[in-house]
Design goal:
Oligomer: single chain
Number of helices: 7
CATH architecture of the largest domain: Up-down Bundle
Order of helices and strands: HHHHHHH
CATH class of the largest domain: Mainly Alpha
Shape: globular
Radius of gyration: 23 Å
Distance between the termini: 58 Å
CATH superfamily of the largest domain: Cytochrome c oxidase, subunit III, four-helix bundle
Length: 290
């Protein structure tokens, strides 16, 4: 196996077992979780087995990629393909959240007014829910889930917003430190970024506990509860994944990986983290404020 010394050379690995390992792991996880939710207690062990297999795949595959990168097998052309791939991945994530924001818009601006009498024909409240007042937040005309209180924009949501915006600054400082070859500054500010990420996740978990126990705001609280937890929950999952990615990159930096001219692994995670920041700003405005 030769090293990629020319900009036009392209390293292609052969005989990797990781794709099929990941496919089997995801099949076990999804099958186990779906069966578990439908009443089979033993299925949780299948889901757990799938999770263990997925972690094994991620560690093994990432280790191979890191070894190939540090071994000089990736040329400039490979680097460009990585950038294109990460760009398309983030675009797919934009579309993912756009669908959920679209669902929120549809429920608030179209479905709710129709049920309140702004529509006509079969969408009129005279035929569906007479005397229903269409105001947001709402658990629907049937009052699904009972009375609840909405989550206000101040308090923990505001604190979490400040935390994420601060983490966007710290990772930018770390990026500039890497390009200037200031390793100590890089390690410090990258650690601050991942610490802020995990702090955000912890505070969001506390917010969920507060919502369930003190506000009676649950997944069963009609359209407001479902959209609230769907949007904030998926974002929290992305923050968790991003924080784990930052942790891996931090350990790599401590081992001396990346140079001012060769650090796309760092940049890819930074792109992802800035995407997470932007999505949260949209969430904070449209879910908590408006």
């Amino acid at each position: 196996m030769t090293l990629a010394k020319e900009g036009t050379s392209y390293y292609v690995p052969h005989g990797s077992r990781w794709p099929i390992t990941g496919a089997v792991a995801l099949f076990l996880m999804m099958g186990g979780v779906s069966t578990w939710l439908n009443g089979s207690g033993a299925a949780k062990w299948i889901a757990l087995l799938g999770l263990v297999a997925l972690i094994y795949m991620l560690v093994g595959w990432f280790s191979d990629v890191i070894g190939e990168s540090e071994g000089g097998m990736y040329s400039a052309q490979v680097d460009r393909s990585f950038r294109m791939g990460m760009s398309w991945f983030i675009f797919s994530e934009v579309m993912f959240f756009a669908a959920f924001f679209g669902a929120l818009f549809y429920a608030r601006q179209l479905a709710l007014p129709w049920l309140g009498g702004d529509g006509s024909g079969f969408f009129s409240n005279l035929l569906l829910w007479e005397n229903f007042e269409a105001s947001w937040p709402s658990n629907g005309p049937a009052g699904v889930g009972g009375e609840f209180q909405s989550m206000g924009p101040l308090g923990l949501p505001l604190i979490n917003t400040i935390i994420l915006l601060t983490s966007g600054v710290t990772i930018t400082v770390a990026h500039h430190a890497l390009k200037d070859d200031k390793r100590n500054v890089l390690a410090l500010f990258l650690f601050l970024t991942l610490a802020l990420g995990f702090l955000f996740v912890g505070l969001q978990a506390y917010e969920y506990i507060h919502a369930y126990h003190d506000l009676n705001l649950t997944l069963e609280s009609g359209i407001y509860g479902s959209t609230f937890f769907m949007l904030t929950g998926f974002h929290g999952l992305h923050v968790t994944i991003g924080a784990i990615m930052l942790t891996v990159i931090w350990f790599r930096c401590l081992k001396g990986h990346f140079t001012p001219n060769h650090h796309f692994g760092f940049e890819a995670v930074a792109w992802y983290w800035h995407f997470v920041d932007v999505v949260w700003l949209g969430l904070y405005i449209f879910v908590y404020w408006l």
